[in-house]
Amino acid sequence: MKLKTLAAASTAALAVLSLLTASGLTLSTSTMDREVTRLSDMVREVRSIMELEVHLLIHERESVRAALTQHPEHARARDAARDKLERWLEDLRAAPVTEEDAGALQEAELEVEHYLAVRADQAHTDGQALSPVESSPVTADEADHAYAALEEVLSTKLAEARVARARVDEVKRRSEAVSIGSASMLLLGLLLALWQASKQIYRPLLAIRTAIDRYGAGSHDARAPNGGLDELRAIAVAFNEMAAALAEQRRKQLGVLASVAHDLRNPLTALKLTVDRLKPDRPLPPEERLRPMFARIGQEVARCDRMLTDLIDIARIEGGELELRYEERDARELAREVVELYRPTADSHELRLSLPDEPAPLRCDPLRIGQVLNNLVANAIKYSPSGGAVQVTVAREGAEIAIAVSDRGVGIAPEDHARLFDRYFRAPSSRQVAAGVGLGLWAAQRIAEAHGGRIDVMSAPGEGSTFTLRLPVTESGYCTRAARLQSS
């Protein structure tokens, strides 16, 4: 999983949970508001009905008192009660009612209006007061009917109010459940996101840092675990590949040191054996024996110097800087010098030189090109343990000068040709014949490329090899300049 995917998934999950929570709370709030409004309307209706009942009783009482006493105060109280009855009737009519309640409520209104009408008629009949015996039978039934109708509506409204209150309580409980559930889901989602972040990001990062710290402390076998997000796995893979490459490079460098020590040991051993013949307490050998000994010493010292020079050049190439001093030379001369250098020491090999009649002009650093040819000829001799001919051929091929070195040695498999010029690479067939570190051909190719040329190879197992150094032709002119060879 990628970091972008994890972030998008976590954000989307938390957004969905938040949306569900908001939707649930909004629905609960809307339902609660609707039920509370309905309950408020019911409370208003109940109050109106109860006020009607109270003022109906007050009106009946004051009507009877006014009829008995003819006192103005009771008449005013009766009229005030009548006004309040009419006002509460208007308030009750304005309240929203359901179809089921409309019939009973209308009947109660009619009963109250009928009662008021009967009382009003009795109060103004002939302008005379009626006795309680005369008035009570007339209005008692009407008052009872009106009160009973109001009481019936009140009972219905109270029952509906209790049901509405129960619904409000239920909505409240549901809202609380939704709130608790939503909060729990959000908390669980957050914990899950943190757990995933710890599993996919923090712990892999900590493991990579631990591996880097161990490697920096000298534990070169430390490797980062391949886990977590794709980006962190890519970092771990890159670190492990780097550590493996450094370990391989360190192993090859140790091999270089071992090979150099081995190669230096041979001339030093020869020098020691030669010098041991010249004991301080013995007379010097005759001149005819002494001259070959000094010649041998000179050859071995030159060999050591050449090996050390090659190592220094390789170090310069690896460091990305090598000074080249160009001169105009003839490739025939360079090839002849190399063959003459190796002819005295190649006892079991026949060194052949084939040169064209025409000049083969080159603009090159003769020391570096000589180093390349030395490497090619030395390899031809080294990897031809059974002896045989080593052919050095100079030819002009179009705009190039080709210097080919051929042998009849062990040969190289075609699948290894592409890697022959890699640093530290040695073909399996070569490793079985002679020691080495795989830097000679790499350095030779870098030098050839610095001159605008290259080294080609043609070889097959058991059929020998041909390495061809190709350099551009220089028709005329003389140039001496310094350049820098950048290692690839």
TrEMBL record:
Residue ranges constituting the HAMP domain according to the UniProt record: 199-251
Keyword Lipid metabolism assigned: no
Histidine kinase domain ranges (all copies): 259-475
SMART domains given in the database record: HAMP, HATPase_c, HisKA
Top-level taxon of the source organism: Bacteria
InterPro entries: HAMP_dom, HATPase_C_sf, HATPase_dom, His_kinase_dom, HisK_dim/P_dom, HisK_dim/P_sf, Sensor_HK_Regulatory, Sig_transdc_His_kin-like_C
Location(s), subcellular: Membrane
Protein name in the entry: histidine kinase
Species: Sorangium cellulosum (Polyangium cellulosum)
Taxon lineage: Bacteria, Pseudomonadati, Myxococcota, Polyangia, Polyangiales
